Each structure stands twice: as structure tokens, then as C-alpha cells.
Amino acid sequence: MDQESKAVRLVMLIGVSGEMPADWAAYAVGSCSYGAALITRLKREGYISLRWKDGLKGYVLKAKAKRKLLELWPDDFASFLCGSVETNHIKSEPDKRLRLYRMSMVWIYLSVAGVPVYKSSKPDFFSPMFHPVPSGEGQKTIRTGMGGYYGTLEFKSGMAKEIGGSRACGVLLTSMKPYIVYNSMDSLMKWAKKTERTMRSRLEAVFRNKGYRSPADAVMFGNRLDMLVRILESDGGIKGNLFALDDIYEQIYFIPLIKEAQIQVRLLVKPEEDRKLRDFLCTALWKVNRTDGVLDDGVDCDGNPVYFCYDLELWRLKRVRGKIEREGRGIIYCFDYQAEALGAYMGGEAVVKGVVREKVIRYLEGG
Questions:
Q1: Would residue 144 count as lying in a domain?
Q2: Average pLDDT over residues 210-219
Q3: What are residue 127's DSSP bridge partners?
Q4: What are the Cα distances from residue 43, in Å, to 38, 47, 346?
Q5: What are phi and psi of 122, to 5 degrees?
Q6: Rounded-to-integer distance, Cα 212 and Cα 329, Å
Q7: What does the DSSP 8-state code read for residue 133?
Q8: CA–CA distance, 88 with 62 (Å, rounded to integer)
Q9: Which of 243, 278, 293, 339 is most buried by a 10 A CB count?
Q10: What is the pLDDT of residues 243-252, one digit of tens each?
């Protein structure tokens, strides 16, 4: 990608973000030095400006950039840069700016990971006119190649007012199932069970109407892997208003906002690659366990139960730790960058084996 393309990419991502955290500009273009040079150029040319207040530092679009985006891609940016929407007006309150930051991080991270984020590159799923392709049996089904991320501005306006306080950032759609997306950043989110339950139920109705048969799960992002243990061990705080695992979602996948974890996004949106990886890992087992509802994935040649935990599904991690504590043994397979955090959480009875991420990518790509 040349310099001009990266400059356009940066402006586009600020456009859907409303305000981009300053330290995420480099991630958006792939280089700290290159990102700094682009920022300097875009500021000089009057496309963006820096907003630094209350300890928060972010980039916002100036009128010149908004006009350019609306001129070139009106369908992609009209809902973000027209009217009174929150991404079209500079916010002064720190909590509102932090909400924009949470959403911006997800836009950028998923875009860099290759997930379609702009309207022109993904199905118009939340439009009343969108209907999935009929299957051979005359029933609706989701397109095999469907995938895309939808921010809350793309679907909240048509829903009831009671979901306005939800902490959700958006929805990630895959060919197999939908995921409601959250970003905990570097602290436990405030969490209102009633609001989040309503959010899920309202979206579930849309998902079923559009052909999804599987219930929605959740994806929770966090700034670093150390948030994984904090989230798993949270009791909701003194006032009980912070996130703790509850019965709203059957499965919640944690993804740290680091470059290495893009492999987790890839496996979520490409379930066929996840199956390929699991089948490969099973070749290391003495006996494979494919029984539904059973926690372990099999046993090794010494009879130790083995658990594939690289997807960092929170409920399963809690159950695996409980089983290992009861039995006093267990083998954990995960990615190499996850090994330290999972070792700290699982305790001394567990043996954690980190699979090299780069080798997994080469294997998935046929290398």
C-alpha cells in the first residue's frame, strides 16, 4: 500500500470512528514512523486536527476531509458524517470520548485484520430489504462468504430506546453465526445485565429473521492479554456494576488488541480454517474426543486430558480450570503469545503448550 493509499485509509478510519485515539494511528497504517509522517501531512493539509483534553488525545476530521469522504464515498460515510450522529460532532465529555475510542479501536483492529467494515464492501444486513439466499430446501440460509463488521450506528437507530445504554460496540457477522462485540480496553466495563440482555434479545430477533439458526455469541476485546485474567476473575466489583461472567451469553471470546491476535479473528470469521487447525492438533493426541458436551478434546499418550484453548472462550476456560484443579492434571494447547497468561490462570497443575502462530498461518495457507 503506497503513501497516498495509507493516507486515505487513515482518514476513512477516523471518519467512521468520530475520534481516533492518537496512539492507534500507527496501527492503522502499520508503522509508527510512517504514521507520524502521515499525521503531520494530513494536519498540514487541513484534513485532520488533534484534540487533547482531559488527558485524552485523539484525531478528528476537519470539514475539508468530511466533504471529501462524502464526495467520494457517500454511501459509506453519510451515516457517520451527516446530521446529529455522535461521530459527526466533537464530544467534550471524557466518558463520551472514551466510548468513541472503544468503538474506534474495534473499527481499526478488524479493518487491519481484513474484515469488511465499510458499507460498500459488506452485505446491507440490517436493511429491511436484505434477505439471505434461499437454500436448496427452500429455507433461508446465510451466504457462505458472508462476513463484515457493523458499528452500532448502523443498526441502533431502528431499535427501541432501552438499548441505548448498552456497552456493545457493534456486530461481527460470519457465515456460521453472529457475534455482539464489546471492548473492555484496559479496565472492567460497567455492565447492566438488563440492558445487555435486551440488546441481545432485540438483535437475536433480527438475526433469526435474516436466516441465522445459531444463537449470537459475544466477542470481548481488551487492550492486552493481562485483561483476560481480570475478566475471568471479576466478581462485578463492590457495587456489582462491573462486568462479570453471567448468563447473557453462552460463549464469550476474548481477543487482545495486539497484532498477534489477528489469528483469532481469522479463525472466527473462517470456521473452515478453525476446523482444519483443530483436526491438525488432534493428530498429536492418542485418543480424540468428539462427544458433544465433553470438555476435553482428547487424551495424550500418557492419558492426560488435553484441551484446545486458543480461542480464549471465557466460559470454557473457567470450566477447564475447575476440571484441572479437581483432577490435578491437564494439557492446554494455545497460541504462543497466549501461553503466559493461560499458565497464570490455569495454575501449576496445568501444562501449557504454545503453538507457534507463524507456523499455524503457514499451515492454514498451505505452506
A1: yes
A2: 92
A3: none
A4: 8, 6, 48
A5: -145, 160
A6: 39
A7: P
A8: 10
A9: 243
A10: 999 999 999 9
Statement: residue 191 has pLDDT above 60:
yes
**CA 147, 19, 58, 97 torsion: positive or negative?**
negative
Check if the beta carbon of residue 115 is closer than 8 Å to that of residue 174. Answer: no
Do 133 and 223 share a domain, yes or no? Answer: yes
Q: Note whether residue 95 is domain-resident.
A: no
* DSSP per-residue string spanning 191-248: --HHHHHHHHHHHHHHHHHTT--SPPEEEEEESSTHHHHHHHT----TTS-B----SS
One domain for residues 254 and 280: no
Q: How far is it, in rounded angstroms, from Cα 214 to Cα 261?
A: 25
Look up the pTM and report it: 0.93
Distance CA 211, CA 130 (A): 11
Report yes or no on 106 lying in a domain. no
* Final residue belonging to a domain, choices 269, 304, 320: 269
Per-residue pLDDT at 128: 76
Query: What is the C-alpha separation between 362 and 344, in angstroms, rounded?
Result: 28
179 in a structural domain: yes
